[in-house]
Amino acid sequence: MATYRFTVDIVAPVGQVFDLWTDAARWHEWIEGVSKVTDMSGPPGQVGTRYTVWFGGMRSPSEIVEAERSRFLRTRFGNRMLRGETLVTFEPTPDGTRLTQEFRTEGIVPAISARIFAIGSYRGSFRGELNEFVRIAEREVNAAR
pTM of the prediction? Predict the structure, then answer.
C-alpha cells in the first residue's frame, strides 16, 4: 500500500469548499481525464452513496464510506490502474479552509500509477488537480463579492 498526502489552503469558507468538492457535475473541471460520472445512488457527500467515475472508456466504481459535512469525506475507489481509498479533510482557518487529501492505494499497479500522479504539480497530477481546485474555489468566492 502506498500513501500520498497533499495539503492546500483555500481563501474560501469551509462549507463552500465542501459543496464544490462534492459537486460531481463539476469534477471534470479539476480532475484530469474525467469524462462523466454515472450511477449516482445518492448525494455525493453522504455515506453509502455509490457512483462510477469515467476516464474516457475506463470506469472507476466508487463509494463514500465515511463522511461528515464540511469536515471529512472518505471514499473507496478502484479499477485495475488506480485502486484504494482517499480521505479528504476540511479545516477552517482564519483565511478560509485547509484541505488535506490523502490517497492510499492497494496493489502493485495502482501503487505505480499513484507514484506517477504524485510526482510534481503538472496538470493531471494529484497536486496539479488540487491547485486547479483552489483556483476555481477562490475565483467563485471573489465573483460572489
Answer: 0.87
